Amino acid sequence: MKSSDVIGFLVFIFLILVLLFVLTKTRIIYPSSIPFWQNIYCNVFVQHHGSIAIVYGSDGIGNVNLLTNMIQQVNPNLVVEPISVSSLSPGLLSNYDLVILDHVKTVSFTSVLDVEDYLNAGGQLLWIGDAFSNQILTPSDLAAAKLENQTRPFYYENLTSQAKKQVGFGTFGSKYLFAYYLGENFFNATFNIDAPQNYLVSGLKSGEKVSLDAALVNLYSSPTQTRVADLAIGNQTYPAVLIEKSVGSLIVYTAFPPEEYNSTVFTSNIINYLVPC
User: Fold this and answer.
1) Do 98 and 113 sit in the same domain of this protein?
2) Closest Cα to residue 260, out of 176, 191, 173?
3) Does some domain include residue 145?
4) Do 12 and 83 have their domain in common?
5) Within this chain, do residues 21 and 111 fall inside the same structural domain, yes or no?
6) What range does the domain containing 86 cover?
7) Is 58 a member of any domain?
8) What is the average per-residue pLDDT within 84-93?
9) Mean pLDDT of the residues in the chain
């Protein structure tokens, strides 16, 4: 083979790799979809193993230990750290490639703001079920608000007024997920896939009967939202899997804990979609 042929071949391979890299970064393709590409993409291009924070609380649906174990089975290279919602502080979440809200129904206003800051900086969020559906003012919130009031008049009054009006996901849900919370329960439902080409539902069956804890939400209109799957409960249909790309962030919402779905494929899809390396 002539040297010019070798050079031409190497250039061709290089261009193919660059194309695959661009398609992967833009989520047109996924590393695990192409044989050997995930190892090349992660070890050559990214050269970084992802870190995940699972923010949990004292109530809500979901099983944090089970989810942690499942993620580590999907990708042993990922660093997975459960973090109590009471331990959140400004800037803490910026260290993570993905933040998961699981088993954390009740949350303080201050903690909501910490997650908002993370999303505003371009973070990725897996929001599960009834997480953040009971937002409350804690004594520490009130003390901080009174201190803030010294330099920002009426800050305390505005905060307490907002808290009285807060229902379900509140303004956090309407701003970032374009959804409002109706309630949660244990349901016998039918899992229907709306976007069969979407990577999140690869390998899953539409029309499957499921029995699980799930949150019910309704949606506001959003051009940046993709409704991937639904839960049919009786004569009603509710969103089961959503993707929201807005304000520079990426949110995947699942109405039920993926760790309690009867297939590890779903959890694997979510993790590979959000943190492929």
Assistant:
1) yes
2) 191
3) no
4) no
5) no
6) 49-133+168-274
7) yes
8) 94
9) 89
**Model pLDDT for residues 154-169, shown as the tens digit of each residue:** 888 877 877 766 778 9
Domain total of the chain: 2
Does residue 81 surpass a pLDDT of 80? yes
Distances (CA, A) of 2 to 10, 12, 13, 16, 51: 13, 15, 17, 21, 46
Q: Does the pLDDT of residue 87 top 90, yes or no?
A: yes
Residue 6 has pLDDT above 70, yes or no: no
Please name the residue that has the structure tokens 């206003």.
109
pTM over 0.85? The answer is yes
CATH at 70? 3.40.50.880
Res 2: pLDDT: 66
Mean pLDDT of 8-12: 72
Token digits for 157?
A: 């009054």
Are 61 and 85 members of one domain? yes
Do residue 69 and residue 201 come from a single domain? Answer: yes
- Cα–Cα nearest to 37, from 50, 48, 21: 21
* The one-letter amino acid at 75: N
179 and 120 belong to one structural domain: yes
Report, as an integer, the average pLDDT of 223-238: 95
* CA dihedral sign of residues 161, 163, 168, 173: positive
Please return the burial class of 6, using the count of CB atoms within 10 Å of its CB with bins 0-12, 13-18 and 19+: exposed
Note the residue count of the chain.
277
Q: Which one is predicted more confidently, 49 or 26? A: 49
- Say whether both 32 and 73 belong to one domain: no
